[in-house]
UniProtKB/TrEMBL annotation:
It comes from Cyprinus carpio. SUPFAM superfamilies: ARM repeat (SSF48371), Clathrin adaptor appendage domain (SSF49348). This is AP-1 complex subunit gamma. One of its GO terms (cellular component) is AP-1 adaptor complex. The keyword Isomerase does not apply. Residues 651-726 form the GAE domain. Belongs to the adaptor complexes large subunit family.
Length: 726
């Protein structure tokens, strides 16, 4: 059989292939020749064939049929065979395949080999793909090599020990005696791998962490020697002495100093030296500075040192490298809660990053900008963020709008500013805001009594300019329905009032009903607004005509509203002014204490005659309901329906547990108000019975969709939603 081609010739041949199919044909032909050689037990060219097979494996072609040939090469006495065999084992084998267990005895023999390079091959293979069974069997040999005086073997044994600890953590104690003298080694390779081993042990065991804290002074000395030493061509990278070792030592110091006052005190000075003496013109120096900043922020460092670290991140923001700017923004975002004032000094630089072309930097800058907002800078920051909202990509608008809403709610200097800001957001990015933005703004406007005339005038102007932003249109329709009389009367004092007639207002609302841009929800708002204006405007006949037209609308929701409103005009016109009066102020009271949050919802029960109630609900033709035991009452004009509902006075309503799961208990209690018997107070008690804090606690109260308008007039329930975080 002719000698197989060499690896170099195979690489040259494959590179001449012009198409994928041609390359695949070459690979298949060579694989067939290699299989034939393996079947014939050709020891002469086994090493060459396995090397070619590994190259084809690196190209993505199957090479699993060479696994046993790798084991044969490992068992060979020739170093060249062992080298290719171990390389093949690391590439083709893993602990999921039982074949790798056949290597255990060979690796054990090679760990005790007289040649350091053979021992190094065995250590590399065990540290790369050794299973937990192999690690248990060979940990003793690794521990012996960790104590040897040979630097070449010690650095490889240290890395192999890291793999053993990851696979079998209970063997960590075995390597503890061998770590005593590791940091005294002069060889940088041994120092580097030793620090990696110590870091792994500290991360996995609190006992080891406490034990190795005594090494902090020694680590500080090593780091000081690195930054103060002169030029060393063997370890120099861009003018910095062994930056890889410096980064590893800083990472270990961060672990050792976290939560420990003494260790943190011992490393404060060296961290300050590294932060001030490291060259920043090269990326190598920036890597060391970044690791220094992380260490300063994690340990119990001095306040001046923390300010120095944040200033370093501030300088990173001015770097031309996008990766460095992104890293700086991410780090500042983590530290802004603990060092808010220090980060505030770099606010202008952070805001400038909103104009960056890189979307990742832009998003981090946006998140950090919202974290910097407070009562002192709310106006300036909102101006920048609103400008960003105008020009940013659609992917950012939803998050930016939500952030502006939250910041404005928390830090608004005045109600007018709050309303103007939210209206600006709705005008700019109304299609991207959250679903709860409309009811939240409605609640804000309702509670700002002195701003009603100003708000309705601003919203009316916004409708004349643009009706494409549906949330804005919905809020405007609601406000015009509630305060349309203020708009027509020109009572606005905050700005020059506009002259508008009742017909012009109705023209705008009717235009929303027929606009192709209006959603079904928006049309519902508009129709309800027109109905509300029937008690505020004198154009009653026009309003009746509009309402009657939509009684035959193909939109079921709109049709139902129109039919119910028509019923009010025809049968219950005497009740219409009371039912369509302005919404009262939405009062919300939150008490917190001992894990209990109490929220009171005020609901108004209009006084209705029994016959009105029966007519409103459609007479006595009610759907059959499962009967429950109720107190016996004398016959009344209402018949069975009043018996079913009980007395409208609601003298006593028993408490109710609405939710009891995962440690959260929500209970409802009911009582009538003494001054006004038509007001009932519903109190919700939310109790956390777990030991952990509950965050993002959200409660929403709303009338379900099944409650149409006639049934909703029984209870004029205010829509409220809020978030409570412990």
């Amino acid at each position: 059989m002719p000698a197989p081609i060499r690896l170099r010739e195979l690489i040259r041949t494959i590179r001449t292939a012009r198409t994928q199919a041609e390359e695949r044909e070459m690979i298949q032909k060579e694989c067939a020749a290699i299989r034939s050689s393996f079947r014939e037990e050709d020891n002469t060219y086994r090493c060459r064939n396995v090397a070619k097979l590994l190259y084809m494996h690196m190209l993505g072609y199957p090479a699993h049929f060479g696994q046993l040939e790798c084991l044969k090469l490992i068992a060979s006495q020739k170093f060249t065979d062992k080298r290719i065999g171990y390389l093949g084992a690391m590439l083709l084998l893993d602990e999921r395949q039982d074949v790798h267990l056949l290597m255990t005895n060979c690796i054990k023999n090679d760990l005790n080999h007289s040649t350091q390079y053979v021992q190094g091959l065995a250590l590399c293979t065990l540290g790369c793909m050794g299973s937990s069974e192999m690690c248990r069997d060979l940990a003793g040999e690794v521990e012996k090599l960790l104590k040897t005086s040979n630097s070449y073997l010690r650095k490889k044994a240290a890395l192999c020990a890291v793999h053993v600890i990851r696979k079998v953590p209970e063997l960590m104690e075995m390597f503890l005696p061998a770590t005593k003298n590791l940091l005294s080694e002069k060889n940088h390779g041994v120092l580097h791998t030793s620090v990696v081993l110590l870091t792994e042990m500290c991360e996995r065991s609190p006992d080891m962490l406490s034990h190795f804290r005594k090494l902090v002074p020694q680590l500080v000395r090593i780091l000081k020697n690195l930054i103060m030493s002169g030029y060393s061509p063997e370890h120099d990278v861009s003018g910095i002495s062994d930056p890889f070792l410096q980064v590893r030592i800083l990472r270990l110091l961060r672990i050792l100093g976290k939560g420990d006052d003494d260790s943190s005190e011992a490393m404060n000075d060296i961290l300050a030296q590294v932060a001030t003496n490291t060259e920043t013109s090269k990326n190598v120096g920036n890597a060391i500075l970044y690791e220094t900043v992380l260490t300063i922020m994690d340990i119990k460092s001095e306040s001046g040192l923390r300010v120095l670290a944040i200033n370093i991140l501030g300088r990173f923001l001015l770097n031309n490298d996008k990766n460095i700017r992104y890293v700086a923004l991410t780090s500042l975002l983590k530290t802004v809660q603990t060092d808010h004032n220090a980060v505030q000094r770099h606010r202008s630089t952070i805001v400038d990053c909103l104009k960056d072309l890189d979307v990742s930097i832009k998003r981090r800058a946006m998140e950090l900008s919202f974290a910097l907002v407070n009562g002192n800078n709310i106006r300036g920051m909102m101006k920048e963020l609103l400008y960003f909202l105008d020009s940013c990509d659609p992917d950012f608008k939803a998050d930016c709008a939500s952030g502006i809403f939250l910041a404005a709610e928390k830090y608004a200097p005045s109600k007018r500013w709050h309303i103007d800001t939210i209206m600006r957001v709705l005008t700019t990015a109304g299609s991207y805001v959250r679903d709860d933005s409309v009811p939240n703004l409605i609640q804000l406007i309702t509670n700002s009594v002195e701003m009603h005339a100003y708000t309705v005038q601003r919203l009316y102007k916004a409708l004349l300019d643009d009706i494409s932003q549906q949330p804005l249109v919905q809020v405007a329709s609601w406000c015009i329905g509630e305060y349309g009389d203020l708009l027509v009367s020109g009572q606005c004092e905050e700005e020059e009032p506009i002259q508008v007639s009742e017909d012009e207002v109705l023209d705008v609302l009717e235009g929303l009903l027929v606009s192709n841009l209006s959603t079904p929800v928006t049309r519902g708002y508009s129709l309800t607004a027109i109905m509300k204006l029937s008690t505020r405007f004198s154009s009653l006949n026009r309003i009746k005509k509009v309402v009657s037209i939509y009684g035959s609308s193909i939109d079921v929701e709109l049709q139902q509203r129109a039919v119910e409103y028509n019923a009010l005009f025809k049968k219950y016109d005497h009740m219409r002014p009371a039912l369509l009066e302005r919404m009262p102020i939405m009062e919300k009271t939150i008490f917190s204490g001992d894990g209990i949050f109490t929220v009171c919802l005020w609901s108004v029960f209009p006084v209705l005659q029994a016959n009105d109630l029966l007519d409103l609900l459609g007479g006595n033709d009610v759907v059959p309901i499962i009967q429950t035991t109720v107190p016996t009452k004398p016959a009344s004009a209402g018949g069975e329906l009043l018996d079913l509902l009980g007395d409208l006075s609601l003298t006593v309503i028993p408490p109710m547990t609405a939710y009891n799961k995962n440690g959260l208990i929500i209970e409802f209690t009911f009582e009538r108000s003494n001054p006004n018997p038509n007001i009932a107070v519903i109190t919700i008690h939310a109790t956390n019975s777990t030991e952990a804090d509950m965050t993002e606690f959200v409660f929403q109260a709303a009338v379900p969709k099944v409650c149409s308008f006639p049934s909703c007039i029984l209870i004029n329930l205010l829509f409220m939603s809020w978030c409570i975080g412990t």
